[in-house]
Amino acid sequence: AGPRHPAAAEGEREQQEQYVVGQVSGSLGAAAAPAAPLAGLFSAAAPPVLVAVPGVSERKRKRAEEGEKASEDQSISVIEQPPVKPKKVRKKHSEAEKKLSERENALEQADEEEDQKLFQNKVKQKKKASQAITKSVVNSATGATAKQQKRKRVADEAADRRTVFVGNLPVTCTGQVLKSLFKKYGQIQSIRFRSLIPAEDTVSKKVAAIKHKVHPNAKFINAYVVFKEECDAQKALKENGTEIASGFHIRVDTASKNGSHDNKRSVFLGNLPYDIRDDAVREHFRVCGDVVGVRVVRDRSTGLGKGFGYVLFENTDAVHLALKLNNSVLMGRKIRVQRVADKKKAQKSADQSRAPKDRVDKKKKEKSCSNDSFVGEKATPLKKSTKPKRLKTTPRNKAGKNK
């Protein structure tokens, strides 16, 4: 043990002075045994050494001091010795392991690419399905509208075949007059008046037709007569050219667009007066032959002529005679008479006339570069010799050197 603390030594001395040998027996009570027998247990030659027990406070203080010293020593050791990083253990891979790892990586990448492709294909299929659904909906809607339009077109064509156009009617003509004229051919379904010029701009044509409020300068109107049967409409064409009133020869024709106009029996008229009447044209060309119909093209809003029209004859011979009336005077103006050209033939001729110049130039070049136009002399080919070629032989000395 180390050297004792001076305070502890002093405490021991005081305790030795306070305790007396044999005093313990006296402390057991009055009826206790005498001190002689207990004192006999201890030898007087070697008295006992008593050690003072330190207090609780001193123990705690020592433990705290020892703990502080240990913490200081640990902190100093931590500061003095820097942290040692653990060394990474490098694994030496062989070439086979590297190849295996590369192969595994390649397989993983391939799997990822396949998954991406499958996902993209699924997305595309969904888009296609949605587009197909939308297209089917649109097609069904358009198909329904197309069917409706087709049905309407068919119904309109059937109605047109049952309808008769009546032109060059006087303004005073009424529905009863037309009904009395055409009822002998069949049952009439309806009668409609057209080409009316209202007396006022604020009044519509329909109201003007119902109330008979027509412009005072208007002289003629047109009408449509609808029969219940198509055969009745064909019979009603017999009334074409009949004089319904003085100076009014009506023109009766089918309202169907499919009706073909015979251009061979017609002539075109130009430079006509704007206020000309159909009967004036009829009278002018009556000397050429029987006139089937006269059509002067007019403005819908004013009823005045546009300066041109057509005359349909019964025979083609009348067309030759009508062409001689070219530059003849009608109501103070020289009219122009021409044949009615077929539109299809006119378009073909126009297309041929508008052919590009490149084709013409190519044709000219081909003609100029033909074999017939080439002038020159042909070269005579050289004759090949039929003698066999000799093989080259090397002398023996040179052959040995080469070896």
UniProtKB/TrEMBL annotation:
It is found in: Nucleus, Nucleolus. Residues 162-257, 265-342 form the RRM domain. InterPro entries: Nucleotide-bd_a/b_plait_sf, RBD_domain_sf, RRM_dom. The keyword RNA-binding applies. Residues 63-72, 94-106, 354-369 have a biased composition (Basic and acidic residues). Coiled coil: none annotated. Keywords: Nucleus, RNA-binding. Residues 384-403 have a biased composition (Basic residues). Residues 57-114, 339-403 are annotated as: Disordered. GO terms for molecular function: RNA binding. PROSITE patterns: RRM. The keyword Oxidoreductase does not apply. It holds the Pfam family RRM_1. Belongs to the RRM RBM34 family. PANTHER family: EUKARYOTIC TRANSLATION INITIATION FACTOR 4B/4H (PTHR23236), RNA-BINDING PROTEIN 34 (PTHR23236:SF25). This is RBM34 protein. It comes from Pomatorhinus ruficollis.
